[in-house]
Amino acid sequence: MKDEHAQFSGSIPAAYDRYLGPILFQPYAEDLAARLQVAKNGSVLELACGTGILTRVLRTHLPSTVKLTATDLNEPMFRHAAAKFGKDEAVQWLQADACSLPFGDRMFDAVVCQFGIMFVPDKALAAREARHVLKPGGLFLFNVWDAMEHNELGQLAHQTIASYFDKDPPAFYEVPFSYHDQDEIKRVLKEAGFQEIKTEVVAKVGAASRAEDAATGLVQGNPVAVAIAERDPSLLPVITKAVAQAITDRFGETDIRAPMRAIVVQARI
Fold it and tell me: Do 116 and 52 contact (CB within 8 A), yes or no?
């Protein structure tokens, strides 16, 4: 899974958390957490926790006695996340691959993942891994982005970035918007042994105070920054400015309100 689409390192985690977190991820983190009911003595595993945006909401939403384990393949991301939590806030942080979880059978009441499944190379294997660590009746709860055409900020960023390269444009944005076929998602989960599989399209609004902030996150807060820098590092500020202009042309320079769409998936064993 260590490819250019998974390199969340260097300055990326801070930009991701500061600029993309409030716009894209906070609204859907609150949506996922509201769907999760766990007993006071329960346990929850989060996959691909990133900079802890969903982790933060889960820790606030769940009873303090619920055991919360947050994992990510990229250590720089969850190290950034851990720094946001107090010592008295019980979260176990662990580097882990969703395709090879380091846990025994039937350990968790719920497995939760926010916008991470799209990056997993073997989604069927990840589903089986989630199933084997879940207790009987346990819940696998995750969300994925709907198609790019329903997520205009991502679409604007992708198109603007591509316009600067005559050949081999960075393809990062094709990945997060690549796994939205609800029938395919249900098939993978069913074959992994899940039942009661439900999918729901959830529309939200991504809010940013300035187009410049959104552009900084969209260009410098994910691995597309690595792909651009590998081709021509001098283009990073140029492309960031161009994406800000594209957002301004579409939504205005301030008080950005961009439509977003995701698919929320719930499955039990």
Answer: no
Q: Side-chain half-sphere of 1: how many Cα atoms within 13 Å?
A: 22
Residue 128 CA to its chain's centroid (Å)? 20
> Where in the chain are the domains?
4-268
Integer Cα distance of 173 and 223 in angstroms: 9
User: What gap in Å lies between CA 104 and CA 133, rounded to an integer?
Assistant: 6
Separation CA 257–CA 260 (nearest Å): 10
At the top level of CATH, which class does the domain 4-268 belong to? alpha beta
The string of pLDDT tens digits covering residues 182-218 is 999 999 999 999 999 999 999 999 999 999 999 999 9
For 180, the token pair is 């939205």
Under 8 Å CB-to-CB from 261, ≥6 apart: which residues? 145, 146, 147, 150, 151, 201, 202, 203, 204
Cα separation, 242 vs 145, whole angstroms: 24
